[in-house]
Design goal:
This protein is an alpha/beta fold and 225 residues long. It has 8 helices and 6 strands. The chain has a 6-stranded parallel β-sheet, with helices on one face. Strand 4, helix 8 (181-189) and strand 5 (193-197) form a beta-alpha-beta unit. Helix 1 (22-34) packs across helix 4 (71-88). The radius of gyration is 17 Å and the shape is globular. The two termini are 17 Å apart.
Length: 225
């Protein structure tokens, strides 16, 4: 007899999981830092900064260069980076197969996004892909006091999904789909299961319950923890 899995919700990271946007974020950070004479290579971004919200990323980058910024200066840097990303964002799109996956999952699972990006960076891409209505909750950088690796983004997504229905979820009912070690640490801290996607890190760097090479390979219905 087939045993039904108890997973009832899927919470996706956005950049590098649903959308091919990490290179655009990296370029926006590079342009922002270059204005102050600070270099950031793409490899360095993926190795040391991937998964951090904008503010934390810029604070770490400038501190590492011996140029620690005040809160007001970080606000200005975040605004510069966001403007640069907005200039690049029309090129952003969902990965192949993502829309089909989401449409397959949505009748059976509640879906959410929990990302270190801002909502106005996420929603236009979901809208262009025709999948925004499939999500019960969308949590961006502005919605939580702490970004990943803190559990706040995933716990906020859980709370938002529970606020939308009387059928309440527990952390153990949720599986997170992440591509960064920081995101996986956040999912663990939230008490949720986790699938790692090897978009920008090798499988050995992702301490997830299950690893896939591409989000289109996900078979959530076959997972039963």
């Amino acid at each position: 007899m087939r045993v039904e899995p108890r997973l009832r919700a899927v919470i996706f990271d956005f950049d590098g999981v649903l959308a091919d946007t990490e290179a655009l974020h990296a370029a926006a950070f590079q342009a922002t830092a270059a204005g102050d004479g600070i270099a950031l290579t793409l490899d360095d971004y993926y190795h040391s900064f991937l998964g951090l919200p904008d503010r934390a990323c810029l604070a770490k980058l400038y501190a590492r260069a011996g140029r620690a910024r005040t809160a007001a200066e970080l606000d200005a840097l975040v605004a510069r980076k966001r403007a640069e990303f907005a200039r690049l964002a029309p090129a952003a799109h969902l990965y192949d197969g993502v829309a089909a996956l989401l449409r397959r999952l949505s009748p059976r699972y509640r879906l959410a996004v929990a990302s270190g990006a801002f909502r106005d960076e996420i929603e236009p891409i979901l809208d262009r892909g025709g999948v925004r209505p499939l999500f019960t909750a969308l949590v961006g950088a502005e919605d939580v006091p702490r970004g990943k690796p803190a559990p706040d983004p995933f716990l906020s997504a859980l709370a938002a999904m529970n606020a939308a229905t009387r059928d309440q979820l527990r952390p153990a009912d949720c599986v997170v789909v992440e591509d960064s070690p920081l995101g996986i640490a956040a999912a663990r801290a939230a008490g949720m299961h986790c699938v790692g996607v090897t978009t920008h890190h090798p499988a050995a760097a992702l301490a997830a319950d299950t690893i896939v090479a591409h989000v289109g390979e996900l078979r959530i219905e076959e997972l039963a923890w």
